[in-house]
Design goal:
Layout: E1 5-13, E2 24-29, E3 32-37, E4 50-54, E5 57-62, H1 64-80, H2 87-100
Antiparallel strand pairs: 1-2, 1-4, 2-3, 4-5
Length: 103
């Protein structure tokens, strides 16, 4: 399953009118910063706008109200996920499961 994440634009690099420049936004979600491509977004963003990010590309713009709703729903989903105390043990169980299936 793929998940597209709403993130806030904190920096723009390049120009919407010049495809020879890099067209990148630096975006933030809860203190996590990422660079994202702006090649396919539905409109050129400004600092402070929200974008839906998927696989390193901005694919859709959101108004702040829509972004807040989406982020809250994602936080609720995360809060309801089972917490794993020992990531090493989980990774080993995944390896063992894959090996038992011949992968």
């Amino acid at each position: 399953m793929c998940l597209a994440v709403p993130m806030k634009v904190i920096e723009i690099r390049g120009s919407a009118d010049d495809f020879l420049t890099e067209q990148i936004a630096v975006v933030d979600a809860d203190g996590i910063h990422r660079e994202t491509r702006l090649d396919v977004v539905d409109y050129w963003p400004e600092v402070g706008d929200y974008l839906i990010i998927h696989a390193g590309f901005a694919i859709h713009s959101l108004n702040p109200h829509e972004a807040a709703i989406n982020l809250e729903l994602m936080r609720e989903m995360f809060a309801k996920m089972p917490q794993r105390d020992q990531p090493e043990a989980d990774a080993e169980s995944v390896r063992q499961d894959a090996a038992s299936r011949g992968h």
